[in-house]
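Task: sequence design from structure.
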């Protein structure tokens, strides 16, 4: 394994999507010939430790004894979280090895997941993470509490997983002619990840001029080679039109750009992306 290459990093938390995260991460790592790292973080939220004053007006000796018991209880909880995390990582390691990854890296870190990812960003090629973690895993109408912060903080591709693994055959690239979508187009054209796939290049706009831009974009993908391209211009609300097209064409993965602090940034990281993340039955790859 060449450890000088940037990593495919999979966020492991033991939620119901962990298996799918492992499977997509293993697929990605093999497609782009990159090492795979499995990361579990133990986030000591301030709210996780109950700082409520339980001592009241009890005596000094009793108060000290109670504080000692609370400290011991928190230490026990920390040990359990550590052991549980190691079990999550071991199970994930075994799964990706069964998928063909010879030497996956495992890492357990204390602290915020977002902060950990920012520290690791320079080593990342792509992050794979579930659309929701254990807190919201039984709430399909919600996305993970940390997901938006992760998307806003990182400047590397992020594959958001929301269903069991299926080898992607058909992808949909959301395109609008902006600088952001042009950059996403270039990344699709030049990455080995998309070779051999069918790419539905889809633009949602009432502007007739976008049709010509769509044709130019399709030609760029054709010239890159190795990708079957189907270009389609749609009208309507972007999230609804794309979701309907995704279902009609049995799209396996949707690819979108998310860059900068411009209008396209607001569109992609605002209600549109939240709706896509919430309602799309297939993974969403955000290209930064």
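Answer:
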């Amino acid at each position: 394994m060449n450890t000088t290459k940037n990593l495919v990093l999979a966020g492991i938390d033991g939620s119901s999507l962990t298996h799918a995260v492992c499977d997509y991460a293993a697929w990605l790592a093999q497609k782009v010939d990159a090492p795979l790292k499995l990361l579990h973080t133990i986030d000591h939220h301030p709210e996780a430790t109950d700082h409520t004053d339980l001592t009241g007006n009890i005596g000094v000796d009793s108060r000290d004894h109670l504080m000692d018991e609370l400290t011991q209880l928190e230490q026990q909880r920390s040990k359990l979280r550590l052991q549980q995390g190691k079990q999550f990582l071991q199970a994930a390691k075994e799964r990706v090895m069964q998928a063909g990854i010879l030497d996956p890296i495992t890492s357990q870190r204390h602290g915020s997941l977002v902060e950990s990812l920012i520290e690791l960003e320079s080593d990342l090629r792509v992050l794979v993470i579930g659309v929701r973690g254990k807190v919201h895993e039984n709430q399909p109408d919600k996305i993970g509490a940390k997901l938006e912060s992760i998307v806003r903080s990182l400047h590397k591709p992020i594959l958001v997983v929301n269903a069991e693994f299926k080898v992607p055959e058909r992808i949909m690239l959301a395109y609008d002619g902006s600088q952001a979508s042009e950059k996403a187009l270039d990344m699709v054209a030049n990455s080995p990840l998309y070779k051999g796939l069918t790419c539905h290049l889809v633009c949602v706009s009432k502007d007739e001029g976008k049709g010509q831009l769509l044709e130019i974009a399709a030609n760029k993908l054709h010239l890159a080679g190795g990708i079957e391209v189907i270009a389609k211009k749609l009208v309507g609300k972007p999230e609804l039109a794309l979701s309907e097209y995704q279902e009609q064409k049995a799209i396996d993965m949707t690819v979108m750009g998310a860059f900068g602090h411009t209008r396209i940034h607001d569109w992609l990281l605002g209600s549109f992306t939240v709706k896509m993340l919430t309602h799309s039955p297939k993974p969403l790859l955000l290209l930064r």
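The chain has a mean pLDDT of 83.
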